[in-house]
Amino acid sequence: MAEADALPEQGLTPAVDATDTASAAAADAAGEEKVMTLVDHLSELRNRIVVVIVAVAIGTAVGFWQAGRIISFLKAPLPTDQPLVFTGLGDAFFINLKVSLVFGIIVAMPVILYEVWAFVSPGLTTRERRLARPWVPLALFFFVLGVVVAYLVLPYASSFLLSFQSADLQALITADAYFGFVSTMFLVFGLAMEFPIVLVLLSKVGIVTSAALGARRRQALLVIAIAAALATPGGDPISPLILGVTMYALYEVSIQLVRITGR
């Protein structure tokens, strides 16, 4: 008892008070950490957006430098005697800029996918990161595949649409309209090819299963047909048909991939 009474006189703090103080300090530190984590999170988002913008800008600059060759390559699916015209004084410049921007986005896609993954992955569990990581390179492959398919479809879509020319209806295609059509097709086909990756990743976290996907083939076919018709810009039946067939084939591939993973 004398020793216990001597503790306050010597300026010492009982052990229980030290524990309470440490707990309070830890709680304050935790609260401060949450605030800093949010700030760091927003700062990281800003930095990654800047990296994406820089990558697209570099790709666009390279595309603008090689704009003549890119335009010749994109015009190749048209008949050789079909000219592309422009009507405004600055149209040629802005067409070159538009083509260069789409080229920059396509070229910068590896950087874009990496930055998206690097930003999202810290919010996933270790298991989810391990399961999703191999599919990031495949996302790039499917995007490139979509762009390639779009370019292969372009001659058939152009031929179909130009086949309606007659003596009374002669095509005078503006360069702005044509390259807008081509750019939209490339981006639509590229992004549409990503949906198998989405299905597989959803299966990894237990949202969908191969049995559920297989049981909804009819609904999926209807949704794919509507999406392909709305997404393709030309109004021709060939582009949505090829896009729809490709997407449905990838849907079937997705079912098999999900089944292989045991879902």
Distance linking N and C termini? 68 Å
Shape: flat
Provide the helix percentage. over 70%
Radius of gyration: 28 Å
**Element string (H = helix, E = strand):** HHHHHHHHHHHH
Global structural class: mainly alpha
Outline the low-pLDDT stretches: 6-36
- The strand count comes to 0
Into how many domains do the coordinates divide?
Answer: 1
Biggest sheet, in brief?
A: none
Quick structural summary:
With 263 residues, this protein is mainly alpha-helical.
Describe the overall structure:
This protein is an all-alpha fold and 263 residues long. It has one domain. 78% of the residues lie in helices and 0% in strands. It has helices at 2-9, 15-65, 67-75, 91-107, 109-120, 126-132, 135-162, 175-192, 195-204, 210-215, 217-231, 238-260. α2 (15-65) packs antiparallel against α5 (109-120), α4 runs parallel beside α8 (175-192) and α9 runs parallel beside α12. The radius of gyration is 28 Å and the shape is flat.
Task: Summarize the helices and strands and which ones pair or pack.
Elements: H1 2-9, H2 15-65, H3 67-75, H4 91-107, H5 109-120, H6 126-132, H7 135-162, H8 175-192, H9 195-204, H10 210-215, H11 217-231, H12 238-260
Helix pairs in contact: 2-4, 2-5, 3-4, 4-8, 5-7, 7-8, 7-12, 9-12, 11-12
Which labels suit this protein?
about 260 residues; 12 helices; flat; mainly alpha; about 0% strand
